[in-house]
Amino acid sequence: IDEYLQQLHRGLAGVHDGRVATYIPELAKADPAHFGIAIATVDGRVYEVGESRERFTIQSISKPFVYGMALE
User: What is the pTM assigned to this prediction?
Assistant: First the structure.
């Protein structure tokens, strides 16, 4: 998993398409150079690569969790 995440990060870290959203003040503060991946398994293992420990706003990332709760 570690090697796969490293390969994935290397392959995608150079993608700079799009722009930082500025219509929400917290999103406007985001550094577009930050890119990290973190995976937590059901047995408690955590795999990380890149800037996975940078703080970020959860404006859009909250949607999958809300969807999952609605399905449940």
Answer: 0.72
